[in-house]
Specification:
Layout lengths: L3 H24 L1 H25 L2 E4 L2 E4 L2 H20 L2 H13 L1 H6 L13 H8 L2 H16 L1 H27 L1 H9 L4 H42 L5 H11 L5 H15 L3 H26 L1 H4 L3 H37 L4 H5 L1
Antiparallel strand pairs: 1-2
């Protein structure tokens, strides 16, 4: 039997270890955040690296395969090209975005309804809605801040790129040495726990990878297509509106609607036919992304029905704002995988 002193010493050690761990996590929170981000990215790109590694090149009756290192090099080169193309016009787009918010009151004044009104709303009621002073003031102040700190925002972007490069290097190390790292991390645990982790890692990595590629990738593509459409029809602030679409579309359901409202405001002052056609095309692009690309790329791996997805976004936004709304779906999808594995009995077990 254990004496009271032994039990007290045992729990005291656990308390001290927990306290030290919490203190180190607080002191090294930036390093911990970097490692967690790298771990998230490693899980997200692992399925992509596996697919690239399976690629074979026939050279004189020899089949040459790509190992993980070359697969990561090819993926990173592709990402580098995308980043360079996105960063080159960044200062001009940021300046354009600030000017859009500064001129928002004058853009709203251009919106004129037909004489009979529209949807039981007359012009006077619309003006009262659009000229809500606190919202207008906040939008103008936000625009002025962007314009005055364009250089600062550009430096922040380059700083974020530097942190991103470091995170990608750590991610590459994690992916290349995933087997040995997993063995070392799981070595203190029992064989049963190690087996459970090995079963759970593939669906979790597929969930994260599908969300990163399917959500971030399609949102970027949607923003670029929106920019091309608005530029083709001569809609002002096309670069800024394309950026808004790419960012807001990361928030399902609500983000795309907000971006369409911004496009509607900018397009109203242009020729009615051109503005209406451009708005319709942008709306159609959003529907293609939402009802064709998302169900194909994301839905099979996210494991969430529409209500669970919406609920996760609401909770994430309530806790952490816009960032929480963006990261909530993959966290909820991962939680659903864990719940299904541990809480829902296997069909084979139930049959037995």
């Amino acid at each position: 039997m254990f004496s009271g002193k032994t039990i007290f010493s045992k729990y005291l050690k656990r308390f001290l270890i927990g306290a030290i761990a919490i203190y180190l996590a607080f002191r090294l929170r930036q390093t911990l955040q970097l490692l967690l981000t790298s771990l998230f990215l490693a899980g997200a790109i692992s399925p992509i690296i596996e697919q690239i590694s399976r690629f074979r090149v026939n050279v004189r009756h020899w089949q040459l395969g790509l190992n993980r290192i070359w697969a990561i090099v090819l993926l990173y080169l592709f990402l580098l090209i995308i980043v360079v193309l996105a960063i080159a016009p960044a200062p001009q787009i940021i300046l354009e975005l600030g000017q859009f918010f500064i001129k928002l009151p004058s853009l709203l004044e251009q919106i004129q309804l037909p004489k009979g009104g529209l949807f039981n709303i007359n012009q006077e009621q619309l003006n009262r809605i659009l000229q809500t002073q606190p919202l207008i003031d906040q939008a103008q102040n936000f625009g002025k801040e962007i314009v005055s700190q364009t250089f600062g925002f550009t430096l922040q972007i380059f700083n974020a790129i530097g942190v991103g490069i470091l995170s990608l290097l750590i991610t590459a190390y994690m992916v290349i040495n995933s087997s040995s790292l997993m063995r070392r991390c799981l070595s203190p645990f029992s064989q049963k726990i190690r087996q459970e982790v090995k079963i759970l890692i593939p669906p979790i990595t597929r969930c994260l990878g599908a969300y990163v590629v399917g959500r971030v990738g399609t949102s970027t593509l949607l923003g670029f297509c929106t920019y091309l459409t608005l530029s083709l029809f001569g809609i002002p602030y096309s670069g800024a509106l394309g950026l808004l679409v790419a960012v807001f579309n990361l928030v399902p359901y609500i983000g795309g609607l907000v971006a369409l409202v911004a496009i509607f405001v900018a397009a109203w002052g242009v020729d009615f036919n051109r503005g209406a056609i451009a708005l319709f095309i942008c709306f159609s692009l959003q529907q293609i992304e939402a009802f064709i690309l998302q169900p194909w790329l994301v839905a099979p791996y996210l494991n969430l029905d529409p209500f669970e997805l919406l609920l996760s976004i609401i909770i994430g936004a309530e806790l952490f704002g816009v960032v929480g709304a963006v990261i909530a779906p993959p966290i909820a999808g991962t939680s659903r995988i864990l719940f299904n594995h541990f809480a829902v009995p296997n069909t084979t077990d139930s049959e037995e």
